[in-house]
Amino acid sequence: MTRLKLAILISGRGSNMEALLKAAASDPEFPAEPVLVLSNKPDAHGLKIAEAMGVAAVAIDHRTFGKDREAFEFHVDATLRGSGVEVIALAGFMRVLTPWFVKRWEGRMINIHPSLLPKYKGLDTHQRAIDAGDTEAGCSVHWVSAGVDEGEIIAQASVPILPGDTSDALAARTLPAEHKLYPEALKIACKTITEKLAHG
Q1: Which CATH architecture does the domain made up of 4-198 adopt?
Q2: Would you state the torsion angle of the CA atoms of residues 94, 150, 112, 32, taken in this order, to the nearest 10 degrees?
Q3: Active-site positions?
Q4: What residue ranges do the domains of the chain occupy?
């Protein structure tokens, strides 16, 4: 079985990245092989975790490019291609990607979002779910498209919202669901990509 070469893009602690790396390391049949973890922040804690797990870790500081998002993404793209990357998983990557980058990786890039999409795209998802009086929240893995959190949904998992919940408490309850969902959704995504490659 050929494993697709995976890059994980992060901006912080990388707990979902760690879940993906562990899933790939523990299962010889896992369809993705992590070859690179890339962060837009040199001090991202996840870079140290990736290195400790034997995966190449690179930082490309977006601040050095000022407001030129495409110049930053050009360097990211060149780094990904230099590592032979075939599929990208965004795991807390806190940058809105330009249409140029999304088009270059269309159909090969997925993201995890802490809400039951299409509800609560963007930020502050847990607080917005609580404020709306919802009885459940959760997480979604979706294909990345030009619109923020608008791509086709691959998989979802829900968690209950409890009386008196704070956004922090709900976020903490959602995180284990994210860690379980993301590796499973990545498997589905890899299957889709592999089938597309097989059919040219």
Answers
A1: 3-Layer(aba) Sandwich (3.40)
A2: -110
A3: 113
A4: 4-198
